[in-house]
Write a structure and sequence with these properties.
This protein is an alpha+beta fold. Helix content is about 15%, strand content about 20%.
């Protein structure tokens, strides 16, 4: 939070109206930062890790909820990530402020052939001005619980592309909005076969 106290007393002594204006400006900046969970001087502390992740799979759908019992501030965002390659790459689902999300996931590929996708899940929280909290895995980090999706929903899963300022190859999961302010230009992930 911005204070300016060391300068405000001198300004007030010279010009009371100018001192009042600076007081109001500082309060405006601090209130905006508090509501937005940002800090112009750098990153704020990330929220505490979520306490648990709950996953229920059904006919082409997975319902995920986050248990988060810690003290948190306004403008917290929640993310769920899922993987089919044992966590080598992660697909990111942004919940916004909600601690739950229903995610459509497939049990078969586009041709209808059953596949042996072993879905695993993890979740975390982040403020717009912070790094993400450490991820919490469904079933634990060392041996995440595999979730099987049933039904006839057909889909070929495309490669993961990440989120925020994270790498576009899906291999830098757990970054939510990102941990860097800017991501440099990235090369294409694969050639565009549809271009002429």
């Amino acid at each position: 939070m911005f204070s300016g106290d060391e300068f405000l007393n001198a300004i007030r002594l010279k010009d009371a109206d100018l001192g009042l204006l600076f007081d109001r400006l500082i309060n405006y900046v601090n209130n905006s930062a508090l509501h937005g969970q940002v800090d112009g001087s750098g990153k704020i502390q990330p929220p505490p890790p979520i306490n648990g992740l709950n996953v229920s799979a059904g006919d082409g759908l997975v319902h995920v909820t986050h248990d988060h019992f810690s003290v948190v501030n306004k403008n917290i965002h929640y993310f769920t990530e899922w993987s089919v390659d044992a966590g080598l790459t992660w697909h990111v689902e942004h919940h916004g402020a909600s601690r739950e999300k229903t995610i459509p996931l497939a049990a078969t590929n586009k041709t209808g052939a059953p596949v042996s996708w072993n879905y695993i899940f993890r979740g975390y929280a982040q403020y717009p001005g912070s790094d993400p909290s450490p991820p919490t895995y469904y079933g634990g980090k060392n041996s995440p619980t595999v979730v099987n999706v049933t039904g006839a929903t057909r889909l070929d899963i495309l490669p993961a592309v990440g989120s925020g300022t994270g790498a576009p190859n899906g291999q830098q999961g757990g970054v939510g909005f990102g941990v860097a302010i800017t991501r440099p230009v990235q090369g294409p992930k694969k050639p565009n076969l549809n271009s002429t």
